[in-house]
Amino acid sequence: MARDFYDVLGVSRDAGRDELQQAFRRLARQNHPDVNRDPGAEERFKEVNEAYSVLSDPKQRKKYDRFGDDFRQVPDDWEERVGAAAGAGRGGPGPRGRRTTRTTGADAGADYVDFGGGGFRSDFGGGIDIEDLLGGMFAGRAGARIGPLAGADQEAELPLTVEEAYRGGRREITLNGPDGPRTYTVTIPPGVTDGRRIRLAGEGGRGMGDGPAGDLYLIVRLQPHPVFRVEGKDITVQLRVAPWESALGATVPVTTPGGATKVTVPPGSSSGRRLRLRGEGMPDTRGGPGDLYAEVRVMVPPHPSDRERELFSELAQVSTFDPRGHSRQEARAGRR
């Protein structure tokens, strides 16, 4: 089976035009036969060209995302045919599986084919059987030969904790399918991010005739975490410090998904200041790791002792610091 075009370019499936172009230029330079004498360079150069020519064309990319390696067999007006088929099907026999509709989450409104317990999502919305539809398309061509057709790709969600996504590793999951529950051993890349698709080749829908089975894509869904907030490859964590650590500066421990480390709090750090720990975010085998941001939050003793109260009172008497002075200056500037 040919390599996935996104893997060839080393980009995510939601990569924009600029990201595609940058990846193509970089890989084309690396593998151009005029500059790279490696015996496999020319083949990689052709592969990169083919991947970019498809993904940089919105119509071709849409078909590729839908149909995978068989996208070239699908006519350009497939969407119109799907619409016609959906209209004609109203009131007729239903799909093979029981169709349900997700009502929450990012995929709200998407149609799911639930084969008695859920698990897989058809790559097609609207409850249309992709295999029947494609068969109808090709049969409708004058003189066209109906050959083997690959099975439809399918999707399922893979919930992960931040720690699981950070470490990666192997994990067993069980999904319900038309033939009952199936268990898969999945390799999770370290640093996998929310929305990333993990491909299980040949584990999707059955093919027609001698056609190969489709692929199963597991869509990573990071679960909310009480400590870590993940945005792409970057992680943010609150860093609670005492007033004296905030005022005088200190080196304090901070928790990361990979374990505890230390961060230096510069003197005069108020709440909201973000301290960057370069490379301590999510690991990334394809490029550089993300960063970890420790967001300073100044905490005061909830029940100060008599001595602490005495010291704070003394500080209040001798200090000339006005924490609201900056706001008053801004207010006066706004009135002028």
Automatic annotation (TrEMBL):
Residues 84-107, 264-290, 315-336 are annotated as: Disordered. Residues 86-95 have a biased composition (Gly residues). Residues 4-68 form the J domain. One of its GO terms (molecular function) is DNA binding. The keyword Chaperone applies. One of its GO terms (biological process) is protein refolding. Residues 323-336 have a biased composition (Basic and acidic residues). Keywords: Chaperone, DNA-binding. GO terms for cellular component: cytoplasm. This is Curved DNA-binding protein. It comes from Motilibacter peucedani. The lineage of its organism: Bacteria, Bacillati, Actinomycetota, Actinomycetes, Motilibacterales.
